[in-house]
Amino acid sequence: MPNVTKEQIETARKIDLLTYLRLNEPDELVYINANEHRTKSHNSLVISNGKWYYNRGQFGGVSALDYLMKVRGADFVTAVETVCGNTKNMILPQETARPPPKRELVLPPQIKYPAKMTAYLQKRGISPAVIGACISSGLIYESVYRGEPVCVFVGRDDTNKPRYAAMRGINSDLKRDVAESDKRFGFLLPASNSDSPTLAVFESAIDALSAKVMGKPDIFRLSLGGVSPSALFEFLQNHPNIQHISLCLDADVVGQEAAKKIQRQLAADKQFAHIKVTVNPPSSGKDYNAMLINKIMLEHEQKNKNNMNHERY
What's the rounded Cα separation, in Å, for the pair 289 and 214? Predict the structure, then answer.
């Protein structure tokens, strides 16, 4: 092939994207955690476990060569020359020449009688009915992590296979995702009507549960597990019927800046530009769980006040 040799092509195909960017475009990398990176130019491109996936375009790969051609639009020869020109003096470690074997998500063991989790969630204002429904559907359960009781919130794909799990301490501030969790599959409370056109988006599973207690049951409620929109874009790919998205992120600077950024991203994407997107932070408190607790307290105060007035007569 003109301008490139078979050896150059073979070398280019061995360079994974993370290695390429670390060596040649480190400023392009955005660190998320030990298992995930993104890029400044393409926020929906996820680099994880030796591979990369472009959520916006719904395709992925392993090599930097694929990335330069599929995402940046370079022709094959230019892509090979770019990779080889930047890596001709690099000695590849064995582990970067081949992607690591794919590892499956293994959920933590389940406690048979989730009394601690149930008490904890009720203390946070989540009703027994909502807790029971989530336990029955396998969305939440109680486990133990390093001797500590935790709630496990499970995110599943469209085949109902667990793909993500977040652990939250019952007696502590522990917050940890289970190893090999895929952020594209967030904790989801399905709508009673699978054709519901409305989706509410939250940062945490607790907030989604809180909104479920306060609101109508016939909408989807999705937790992002933070402010990254990966789970949102994955959900929209599988639910083309969505016409309205309510961004219910936290009422702090990080949450509201993320909500406005997501709103802009959706408006700029031809696939999703028709969707009405509103930003709806909690009306009281930092998040929707604080809003629920405030609502419950006000209802109790009003009930006590009514009882006292009744006793006077």
Answer: 10
Sign of the CA dihedral running 211, 213, 215, 219: positive
Do 132 and 76 fall into the same domain? no
- This prediction has a pTM of 0.68
pLDDT band at 1 (very low <50, low <70, confident <90, very high): very low
Pairing assessment for the beta strands 45-48 and 51-54 based on DSSP bridges: antiparallel
Residue 193 has φ and ψ, to the nearest 5°, of -110, 115
pLDDT digits (tens, 9 = 90+) for 244-267: 999 999 999 999 999 999 999 899
How many domains is the chain partitioned into structurally?
A: 2
Average pLDDT of span 66-72: 86
307 found inside a domain: no
In a domain, 1, yes or no: no
In a domain? residue 246: yes
Closest to 91 measured CA to CA, from 172, 209, 163, 11: 11
| 312 occurs within a structural domain | no
Measured distance CA(7)–CA(278) in Å, rounded: 53
In sequence order, the 6+-apart residues with CB closer than 8 A to the CB of 287 are 202, 203, 204, 206, 207, 210, 250, 251, 255
Same-domain check for residues 297 and 249: yes
Averaged pLDDT, 261-287: 93
Instruction: Give me the CATH number covering residue 281.
Output: 3.40.1360.10
Q: Domain of 25?
A: 6-97
